[in-house]
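sanity check this record:

:::
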Amino acid sequence: MNKPLTKMTPVRLVLSAINDKHLDEFDSRPLSDSCAWLVAHGLARRIGLRSYQAKKDHKGFQYDGRGRIWASSASDLVHECAHFLVASPKHRYKAEYGLGTGPELWSSCQALVNSEKADSDEGLASLFGIIWEAELRMGYAETIVKHSWDCNPDPGPDLVIRRLRRLKLFVHGHPVIPSDSRYKQQDQPKEVVPPR
């Protein structure tokens, strides 16, 4: 590795960790769990979302489409924030971003997109969340393994990064929250109530 880790941007740091497969060199001093929760809740607030630590018996959605996220770990909360930021504007106001029921979902919902689009959005949210974890000094190396980025995924991380750049989610290698990507109650589509 040519560049000192402290000089690398979060994007470069995560790509190096994935491509070099030496995860033990990275992420050497992550935040404590309690600090990671505070930082993750802060990220959710910056986006305009309300976040809650899910209880073991939680039976609802992870994201309800109304600006509320329930997560069982700080890493999961950052992942859900990343989902919100990569989702299309119309899917930001749907349960589970319109992607349907996932593997860790507590409630079921109908997918509004095909499985290829759902997988693509999941990959975007996964890597973008890991980059946010690096930016926020959270323990991202564990998330790289949990999301299988260390196992030569298809598409590879470089392609996913290019797609995230096209969405204008980075500035100089650091993740950003675009001003038009914040949750706004008034932007939520109105439900049409049929006449009786």
